[in-house]
Design brief:
By secondary structure, the protein is an all-alpha fold. It contains twelve helices and no strands. Helix 2 packs antiparallel against helix 3, helix 2 packs across helix 9 and helix 4 packs parallel to helix 12. The longest helix is centred in the middle third of the chain and has 28 residues.
């Protein structure tokens, strides 16, 4: 996954990596459930972010500088750390807090609204134009979210409005991370941006770890829960984030975000298979409206 050189990698390779990225994210909905059985959501999010930063640091020290298109300076550090606070600290904390309070299908479907959130932020920055068709698509997707609120019980974990809102906010923070991070990635490379982001985002969460660890019995945590935490730090965090920004440097953001259609389908199928979730008519209707709205927004 080299960023060196000016030649563009084969599109098939980029698409294969994006499919793998979405798979890691989809599996994360199930794996996170295992971790949340034994870890409080804030503690799990904090440990995940810090572990990811510690894993990225030696990789960056080994290979990072050779991939830098333009060496970072001290003036870049606050921007890079700021990306981490938004895209790591807030994103991962909100995601696990939301997943703790809603069902896997709800979380997966609402997370599928990421392309719309990217578009809205890009339009405010003057990078995209909002047409009547796009606004109509957004309305359809939001209507789907409203319909989802009628499907509270899915058989595995009850859904709540608060949980759904937290997942939506988590997506918003990642959309901010994607839009503002694209320019920094083009300048410094994905490995540099993600290393600084996870180190910066993780450092903010160190006090949270100290606070949440008071009275928490780490010795009672099972091997499965620890392995789940490691998975969340390595694959949907480090590996997926690197793939995401690697792809952004070679193809349009709208094309990258199109792969988000796969995530709700994969995650819902995994929840049905492994977590005992149930697919109801209302859930299908709401999910279909969300994905249709996203599709119409992008195609407009």
């Amino acid at each position: 996954m080299s960023e060196g050189g000016s030649s563009r990698p084969p599109v098939a390779r980029i698409y294969a990596l994006l499919t793998l990225m979405v798979f890691f994210w989809a599996v994360n909905f199930v794996i996170a459930r295992i971790a949340l059985r034994e870890f409080p959501s804030l503690l799990a999010a904090s440990l995940r972010a810090c572990l990811a930063g510690l894993l990225l640091l030696p990789v960056y020290l080994w290979k990072g500088r050779q991939y830098d298109k333009e060496p970072w300076t001290l003036s870049d550090v606050p921007k890079l750390f700021g990306l981490g606070v938004v895209g790591v600290t807030l994103n991962q904390a909100l995601f696990l807090m939301g997943l703790e309070r809603t069902s896997t299908p709800h979380a997966a479907i609402i997370a599928g609204m990421l392309p719309i959130q990217v578009l809205i932020i890009s339009s405010f920055l003057g990078l995209e134009m909002l047409s009547v068709r796009r606004l109509a698509g957004m309305g359809v997707a939001l209507g789907g979210v409203a319909v989802l609120q009628l499907a509270r019980e899915t058989g595995g974990h009850p859904a709540t409005l608060l949980g759904d809102l937290l997942i939506l906010l988590s997506g918003t923070t990642f959309a901010l991370f994607a839009v503002f991070g694209k320019k920094m990635t083009a300048k410094h490379g994905a490995l540099t941006v993600n290393t600084f982001a996870f180190l910066g985002g993780g450092s903010v969460l160190v006090p949270v770890i100290v606070w949440q660890s008071a009275g928490f019995d780490y010795g009672a945590v099972s091997v499965g829960a620890w392995l789940s935490l490691v998975y969340m730090a390595v694959f949907p965090s480090v590996v997926a984030y690197l793939i995401f920004y690697y792809a952004l440097t070679h193809i349009a953001a709208s094309r990258v975000s199109t792969f988000g259609y796969l995530q709700p389908l994969m995650a819902t199928a995994l929840g049905l298979w492994l977590l005992g979730d149930q697919i109801t008519g209302v859930l299908v209707a709401g999910g279909s409206l969300v994905l249709t709205g996203v599709f119409l927004t992008e195609r407009a």
